[in-house]
Design brief:
alpha/beta; Rossmann fold; five-stranded parallel sheet; 7 strands
């Protein structure tokens, strides 16, 4: 029997990372940040002098570099060629490059394969931009978090990141492969005003109604 997956998609600074991490903790599921994987490759490309927008060069990088995804402490860690990119993936240069490299089909294909394998290891709360539309289209636990663009921009600033939310939205929605969009059967959650705990509570109620691991949910 396949492990359950809760898919949480949404644009930059919509609150999906905070909500997904908290939801995973409440359910005792593994938290998966797929955006961190794309950021890891963006960082590696920059480290090796590869243009993140150069499909041929990035494809070569994807083919050559060993990728390892491991579960530890309730979340997934990414290693590229044995290195841990986590301390570097929020750098400004990575912020500017991630949408470019995420549009490379060969990278997306490889990461989707690896992301799907994680389901064999543990129940997941996976967040990103194509989880419900591409990675786990079969899950009935799909959510799309969104918030007012002005609020999202302020959140980014408070996080010490200056990437332009509107530009990220446009780039993610316009890419030819797996564009950012709400799955037809996903529940739209407005995260403009509610805090993370309130949103998590709403999602848990919906998950319970849809039959997610009743013993776990009801025990919360």
């Amino acid at each position: 029997m396949l492990n359950p997956v809760v898919a949480i998609d949404g644009p930059a600074a919509s609150g999906k990372s905070t909500v997904a991490r908290g939801l995973a903790a409440r359910l005792n599921f593994t938290y998966v940040d797929t955006g961190a994987m794309y950021r890891a490759f963006a960082w590696l490309a920059l480290e090796r002098g590869v243009d993140p927008a150069d499909r041929v060069a990035v494809s070569g990088l994807v083919e050559r570099v060993p990728l390892a995804l491991t579960i530890s402490g309730g979340s997934v860690q990414t290693r590229l060629d044995g290195r841990d990119p986590a301390p570097f993936i929020r750098e400004e240069r990575v912020n500017a490059a991630v949408s470019k490299i995420a549009a490379v089909p060969e990278l997306r294909e490889r990461l989707v394969i690896e992301q799907r394998k994680l389901r064999n290891l543990a129940p997941l709360v996976m967040e990103g931009r194509d989880i419900g539309t591409v990675v786990f289209t079969d899950t009935v636990f799909k959510f799309f978090l969104d918030a007012d663009p002005v609020i999202r921009a302020r959140r980014r600033q408070r996080q010490g990141q200056s990437d332009v939310v509107a530009a990220r939205d446009q780039a993610d929605a316009a890419r030819a492969v797996a564009p950012l969009t709400k799955a037809a059967d996903a529940v739209l959650v407005d995260a403009t005003d509610d805090d993370a705990d309130t949103i998590i509570g709403k999602i848990l109620q919906i998950c319970r109604a849809r039959g997610l691991s009743a013993a776990k949910v009801d025990a919360l």
